[in-house]
Amino acid sequence: MATSISTKPSTLAELRSSGWQSKSVKQEIHDNFLAKLQAGEDLYPGIVGYDDTVIPELNIAILAQHDMLFLGEKGQAKSRLMRLMVSFLDEEIPYIDDPHIPVHDDPYQPITRRGRQLTSSVPADEVPIAWWHRDDRYAERLSPGTKFADIIGEIDPAKLAAGVSMGMEDALHFGLIPRLHRGIFAMNELPELDELVQVGLFNILEERDVQIRGYPIKFDIDVLILFSANPATYNRSGKVIPQLKDRIGSIIHTHYPLERDLGIQIVEQEVKERETNDEIRMTNDERTDSSFDIRHSSFAGERAPSASSQPSVIVPYFMKELVEEISRSARRSKYVDQQSGVSARLSIANYRTMVASARQRAAVLGEQPAVPRISDLGHLYASSLGKLELDMMGSHQMSERQVLDAVLAEAIATVFKEYVDKHGLAEIAEIFSRGVKIEVGDMLPSSHYAALVKRVPPIWDKAFEVNASDNEAVRASCVEFILAGLYATDQISRSQQRGRIVYET
Predict the structure, then answer these.
(1) For 426-446, what is the mean pLDDT?
(2) CA angle (385 as vertex; 383, 389 as ends), nearest 5
């Protein structure tokens, strides 16, 4: 029931008069989800590429009022999907406001001894009511290191020392799940959860009660429980107790973006969200001279109006494609452990590194705007190493740097072949047969490239078709893309020393 702050009931009597009705948390989520679905609202903001695969199964699981397991490799938005369940909760729900009650007890159906005592023996106009916001009704825990007492509870020695009987509920210290009564609890990486704790979840999932150390103290817990896991470990025998698997209502299978454009959309969304959060943070700190004047444009020649001395940034679309293709190539690589997966965080981190390199060059050389080039990808070791788990069981043992070099070369060749019409490449490659050498580098000015192109302008017209623009910085990026593509397809050779690359025959 929607109530304004000024009219919110503050006693049990007022709550009863208001017409508020009690619901289980799953029924509450079901009803609110159905209302949003019928109204055509965006159910999962920020989730890209799951419309025809993951989302239909998730919708059915919510309507079926199931506990759920999100099964997928790292970086597939499992945690984001779990956290979005909060949006289907009521904005606020009432609870009995008593310091001696350890949970947010339902005023109509209290589960604690103290709550039942208050509602049965104290006049309704003297039972205080407070309101619990939806944002506070969600908690999550990472499985490794989690103990029984952390999420379920334990006998509190201090209370025993104070004279409380061990068989009384007042002697208990509640874990996260009882404290999330009428809320949502999420357990990440379920296969890493200790077997004793898995056993403790049996009754909660099926019987909806909590039993601590065998004492006959039961609580009718009302909670939606969500899990996440990697398929490789979840399906491994003995990692998850079969009885626990049997009690999970629905399994939602996630996946990586099926198309490159969807991956780019995710990267752009995350980068934009980060910039927006940074701008808000700077505004809150009363720093109005924001340096986040970046406009990630797919259209060459388009530049952001700069309100500060920081250079604006234009990212040609082929550079965005390269960054995403690096992740896609890694997911196909025989050198990378595919059971672990390659997170979307690799693309996001690499994108930011690429943009940072372009901004550094623009700041040092005084260029405007900053435009990323292939040579900026030479800095991706810093943002990529550690995010690729190598297949140590394979017959081809390579270092992580060597694997990244191979993945980058494959990504460049893949995008290059898609972008450039083969007719005309022979002319560009032929200039190298006449002994022409072209030097490129991440700290060379765009004017350096413009001077090179002026020597053979008709030949390079084909290069600028990939991102038409008269801007020198954009054209420099196009030149490097063509040269790197020719090298990746074995049409020219190159030598590299101290950050400079020379292309030749």
Answers:
(1) 76
(2) 130
The pLDDT tens digits for 118-172 are 999 999 999 999 999 999 999 999 999 898 888 887 776 666 666 666 556 666 7
The structure tokens 């390269």 sit at 322
Two structure tokens written together for 120:
């049965």
What was the pLDDT predicted at 289?
Answer: 38
Residue 216, burial from CB neighbour count under 10 angstroms (0-12, 13-18, 19+): exposed
Query: Top-level CATH class of 5-253?
Result: alpha beta
CB atoms within 10 A of CB 305: 7
The residue assigned the tokens 């909806």 is 208
Buried b (16+ CB within 10 A) or exposed e, 393-428: eeeeeeebeebbebbbebbbbbbbeebbeeeebeeb
The tokens describing 373, both together, are 């080039």
DSSP letter at 188?
E
The Cα–Cα gap between 167 and 222 comes to 23
Token pair, residue 459, equals 């030949």
Residue 471 has pLDDT above 70, yes or no: yes
DSSP letter, residue 489: T
Give me the helix-helix angle, 446-455 and 472-488, nearest 10°.
70
Distance separating alpha carbons of residues 412 and 302, to the nearest angstrom: 24
Two structure tokens written together for 395: 């017959």
Domain range summary for the chain, segments of one domain joined by +: 5-253, 260-504
Separation CA 405–CA 60 (nearest Å): 43
pTM (2 d.p.): 0.84
Amino acid at 187: M
DSSP SS3 for 468? coil
> How many C-beta atoms surround the C-beta of residue 174 within 10 A?
22
Which comes out higher in pLDDT, residue 503 or 212? 503
Residue with tokens 């199931």: 66
**How many Å apart are CA 315 and CA 296, to the nearest integer?**
6
Residue 193 corresponds to which tokens in the numbers above?
């959860």
Q: What is the dihedral of CA 186, 191, 195, 201, to 10 degrees?
A: 30
Lowest mean pLDDT among 168-182, 357-371, 378-392: 168-182
Map residue 185 onto helix, strand or coil.
Answer: strand
| Phi, psi (rounded to 5 degrees) for 184 | -125, 130
Residue pair 474/300 in contact by the 8 Å Cβ criterion: yes
Report residue 269: phi and psi, to 5°.
Answer: -65, -45
